Amino acid sequence: MKKRGQTQQFDKASFKASVKKHLVTTYAQNIETASDKHWYLAVGKALAEISTGNLLETEKRVANAQTRSVNYFSLEFLIGRLTGNNLISLGLYEQISDAVTELGFQLTDLLEQERDPALGNGGLGRLAACFMDSLAAQEFPSVGYGLHYQYGLFQQSFLNGHQIEFPDAWREAEGYPWEVQRSELNQFVGLYGDVSFYTDDEGQQHRRWNPAVTLQGIAWDLPIIGYQNQSVFPLRLWECRAPVPFNLAKFNDGDYVGAQQTQIAAGNVTKILYPNDNHDQGKVLRLTQQYFHCACSIADIICRHLKNGHEINSLSKFEAIQLNDTHPTIAIPELMRVLLDDHQLSWDDAWAIVSKTFAYTNHTLLPEALETWSEALIGELLPRHLEIIFEINHRLMAQVEAKWPGNNEIKRKLSIIAEGQSRMVRMANLCVASTYAVNGVAALHSELVKRDLFPEFDELFPGRLQNVTNGITPRRWLKYCNPQLSALISEKIGTEWPAHLEQLEAIAQFATDTQFQQRFAEIKKQNKQRFADWVADNLDIELDTNAIFDVQIKRLHEYKRQHLNLLHILSLYHRLLNDPTFDMHPRVFIFAAKAAPGYALAKDIIYAINKVADKVNNDPRLNGKLKVVFVPDYRVSLAEIIIPAADVSEQISTAGKEASGTGNMKLALNGALTIGTMDGANVEIREEVGDDNIFIFGLLVDDVEKLKAEGYNPHTYYEQDSLLKASIDLLDNNEFDATDCAAFSNIRHNLLEGGDPYLVLADFADYVNAHNRIDAEYHNQTQWVKKTILNTALVGKFSSDRSIRDYVNNIWHLTALPQ
Ligand code: CBF
Q1: Does Transferase count among this protein's keywords (predicted)?
Q2: How far does the centroid of ligand 1 lie from the alpha carbon of residue 65, in Å?
Q3: Which member of 100, 288, 524, 691 lies 3.0 to 4.6 Å from 107 by CB, making a disulfide possible if both were Cys?
Q4: CATH for 528-798 (3.40.50.2000, 3.40.50.920, 3.40.50.720, 3.40.640.10)
C-alpha cells in the first residue's frame, strides 16, 4: 500500500491491453469497428479492475483497524458520472488521457458516452454522493447503503413546451462498468405474515415474526475512490429479486405469467426511484422499498460485525448509522427486532445499542415532506415492527409524562402515533426519540428545527439537536468541472486545495490584481462559450457570451420560486417594449429543472417559461437583450457545464423553506454571484463572502411568519405596484401562447386567488431592485470580477470535507484509517 498523496501505480501498456481485452472478451467487439460507447465501457472496466482491487484491500484495512465505521443510509445517491471523477481521484487523468489517445480516441469524447446514474432526485441525493466522496477522501471507514434502482430519475424532454417523462435505464444493456456484484453478501428479507410466541429451552417466552413473503437482496458495490489516497469504500446498492425466480411446474402447465409472478413482484421493489423531491407519497411500494433497503443493510452490518469477531453487544462501538432524512427510519425497529428476536437481547440491552447507533439528519421543514405511514399499512406489511414502534412510543410517553406531568397537549405533539380517523406513524418523531443525534443542514435550518419543529424534543433531550452545515465536494465541483480555473488556482496557491478547500482563501490576495482578474474573467468567458456551444448544438439557440448568464438550476418547486424569476423576466420584457428610457445589459436567463410528474403547477411553470423563451428569443424588438433557455433533462453532467458558465446564481426561495441548498455553494465556488434570500445556507454564504459580494433581498423568516399571521393579501401588492401588475397581467393575455394559455392562468390564479402561498408578490419589488443592482454593478467589470474572485476564494467552508469532519467530531466519532 502506498502513502496518502501518492497516486495509483500505472503501467500504460498493460492498461491499454486490458482495455482491448475487455473490448473483445467482455463486450464482444472488434477493435477496428467498436463504437465510442464500447470503448468507454472497456476503459471503465479496465479502471474498475484497479478500484475493485483497492476496495477489497481497504475492506481488510478497515477490519484490521478495529475502529468505528459509519453506515450512510440513503434512499438516494445522485452520484453522477463516475469515470472522469474517478480518474481524478485515482490521480490518473493525464495518463489515461494519453493512453486513450494512443488507442485513437479523445478521453473527453469517451467520457461523454457515460449515462448519468441518476439514483436521486436533487439536493438530498447529491449531498449523499458528496459525503461519500469526502468520507473516502479523508479515509473514514464508511459504507453507503442505497438501492439499485433499475430506472433512475426519469429523463425529461419537452414537447411543445410541456414536460414529458421517459424511463431512465441508466445501466443500459451492457451494464454499468464500475459496479461489481457481491453475491456472498446477498440477504433475505421478509414481509407480511404474523407474529407468534414461542418458548425457548430455558422456558423464556419470545416473539417471532413469521413473514409470508421472502425477497432476496442482491448486493452491488460501486467504488467510492478516495482522492489520491488509494482507499476505496463501497456504495452498496441492493437489488430486489425473488429467491425462487421461476416456477417450472406452472410454466409446464402453460401458466407462463404465473410462472414468473414472484420475480415480477420482487423486481418491482427496486424497479424505480420515486420521482418526488421534498414530498411524501405514502405508497405501499415505497414503504416496501424503504424496508427492503433497511433490512438488507442492517443484516449486512451485523454480518460484518460478527465476522470481524465482535460481540453483538458491542455493535454501537463499531458501527454508526446515519439516516439520511426519515426515508430509512424503519431501520430503527428493524435493528430492535433483530436484537430482540434473533439475538434474544432484553429490551433495555437492545435499546442501549440502538439508541447509541443511529443518528438522523433532517433536510426539510415542509409539512408535505415529513413522512407519516398509516399504522394499518405498517401493521400489515411489518407486524412485528409495529409492535416495536408501539413499545418505543409507550416508553417515550412515559418520559414525557415524567417531564410534563398531565400535559396531554405535549404528549399529542411528541407521540410517534398521530391520533385521528386513521392513525399514522410519524417517522420524524420516531427518529428523534430513538437516535443519539439529530441534525439540521444549515445554521438557520437547524435553529428552525429546534424552534419550530421540535421545541419540546429539544427540551426533553438537551443537546441532541445539532447543526451540520452541508457542503459539496471540491473535486467534482471545481477540479473536475472547471479544469481551467483549477489550473489557475493551482498555479497560484499550489495543488493541495482540492483536499483542503480552506486554502482557497489565499487567492483573495489576487482579487485586485489586474492580470489575475483578466485571466479569471477569460476563464469565465471560455466556460460561457463551452456552454453556449452546447446550447447551440443541442437546442439551436445562439447565446452571446457578453451577456450576463443568470442561472437557476434545481428541482421545480413553488417554494424555490422559479415563477418569481419568471415574473422578473416578464417585467424586463414589459419594460424593454414599453419604456423607452429603460436599458439593460443583455441577460440570458438559464433554467434547468425537473418537475415531479404529478405536480401540476410545477409543470405549468416549466411550460410557461418555455413559451416565454420561444417568444423572447425570437422577438427582434428586444434587440437580443433578453434570452431565456430552459435546458431539458437537468442532471449532474449538465450541472458540470452550466455551473462554471454562470455569472449570477439564483437562490430565491421563500425565507424558511429551503433547508440549505447546495447549488448555491457550487455556483459561488465557480465564481457566480448569488442573488438570494436570507434562507438556508445563503445566510452562511453571505457571512463568508461579505455583504458586498452577494445580492440579498426579500423578507426574513420572521417577516414571512408575521405577514402570514397578519393575513397576507397578494392583491394589495398587485394593485400597488404597476410593474408587478403589468408582469402578472402578461400571464393572462395570450401574449406567449395563443393556443393553450391554461398554464399561464393557473400560475396567475395561484398567485392571486390562490393566496400566493410562497409570497412571490411580497418579494417581487425587492427582487427587482436586487436585479437592478446586478445590472448596474456588472457594468463595472473590474469590480465585478473582483467580487467573483472573492466568491471563489471565500467559500472554502462549504467543502463537504468540512461537513464530514463536523459529523465525525460531533456525531460519529470515527478515526481515519491508519496508512
Ligand atoms: O440537505 C440536502 C438538501 O436536501 C433537500 O434537497 C431535501 O430534499 N430536503 C433540501 O430541500 C435542500 O435544501 C438541502 O440542501
Answers
A1: yes
A2: 34
A3: 100
A4: 3.40.50.2000
